[in-house]
Amino acid sequence: MIVLGIETSCDETSCAVVDDEFRILSNSTYSQLEHSKYGGIVPEVASRQQIKKIVPIFRDCMEQAAMTIDAVDAVAVTCGPGLIGSLLVGVNFAKGISFATGKPLIGINHLEGHIYSNILSHPGLRPPFISLIISGGHTQLLSVEDYCRYKLLGETRDDAAGEAYDKVAKLLGLGYPGGDMIDKHAREGNSKFVRFPRAAVRGDPYAFSFSGLKTSVALHVNDKPASYVQDHLADICASFQEALVDSLVDRCLLAQSELSLGDIAVSGGVSANSRLRDVLQAESKRLGFRVYFPPLLLCTDNAAMIAAAGIVRLQRGESSDLSLDASAQLRLA
Ligand code: KG4
Ligand code: ZN
Question: What is the C-alpha to C-alpha distance for residues 91 and 211, in angstroms, rounded to an integer?
């Protein structure tokens, strides 16, 4: 089975072709640069860019795979969660292909796609396992009990992990999105320079909260001269990152010890973070479990992960009809 994946949930336009051995035959992605000048994603701009890019990216994807649509068996498309205007571009494009060719269509939850970015890249990773999804819009810890069976352990009560990175980056004048810039500066800094708070939610040990951390960084720099941030940029980045990574690792290790699921798979844009990778890898060696991260290309939004999730659902006999709708708040569990 060969599946065309389509992903347009936010500010990436991506098309990919994946086969049922999880080989990526092509994966073409456009990341919108238009938002950096606004310091955050402008939904109206995002959906207009999706409309402009979907056809060229689809053409590029088919060219890279050296095939025509005739060789594809089905179409998988992200139908939520995400920005509704962006989602609708992909969903309607996928419905158009399905209608014109008669090929089956399957709507995929974007977060399930992120889980498949790891299953796709690591033949050794099979359910059950613990999944940490950390992106610009989401922070969720789940148990993946079987294919397509998820249980939510905890999620953020306020900002997503990537959102905290982006807001702190903006505060420090590092541009948008700023997660990778903070990661880069933090490598040169002293993570013990400031001890920023690690928030816990009473009665909900798996919940995350990052807005207090972001506010603490703001309070720390706001009453200092501009030269202070310049002089201590790497130390502030390292201290902020240490607090955030600590919170993520803490919940992962709790789940690992309390549930007998064994391994941990981390995905989403923040899973590219070098400090998180180092700490979780060291903990996995110390405690004797395996930790998985996607290759950097599959950390951020891409259609290969959507196609992979589509293959598994289609193989189970599932499909969507042409009334498939996009849902901005679609839940996974
Ligand atoms: O998964 P993604 O591409 O988009 C969403 O679905 O949100 O994630 C984007 C997020 C941004 O917040 C970005 O700052 C963050 O991932 N990010 C990082 C790193 N690279 C990207 N955060 C921390 N460290 C990184 N190296
Ligand atoms: Zn995402």
Answer: 33
| pLDDT confidence band for 182 (50 / 70 / 90) | very high
Length of the chain, in residues:
333
Token pair belonging to 171: 């505060």
- What amino acid occupies position 210? F
Separation of 323 CA from ligand 1 center, angstroms? 32
Say yes or no: CB of residue 269 within 6 Å of ligand 1. yes
Give the mean pLDDT of 220-227. 94
Atom of ligand 1 nearest to the CA of 178: 14
CA of 271 to the centre of ligand 1 (A): 8
Q: Is pLDDT above 90 for 15? A: yes
* Closest ligand 1 atom number to CA of residue 184: 26
Band (pLDDT 50/70/90 cuts) for residue 37 is: confident
Domains of the chain with bracketed CATH: 2-115+298-315 (3.30.420.40), 128-296 (3.30.420.40)
- List beta partners, residue 139: 134
- Our answer on whether the CB atom of 272 is closer than 6 Å to any ligand 1 atom is yes
Cβ atoms 136, 160 nearer than 8 A: yes
Give distance in angstroms: CA of 118 to centre of ligand 2.
Answer: 13
Q: How far apart are CA 175 and CA 181, in angstroms?
A: 8
What pLDDT does residue 107 have?
Answer: 98
Put the strands of the sheet holding 139-146 in their side by side order: 149-155, 139-146, 129-134, 264-267, 291-292
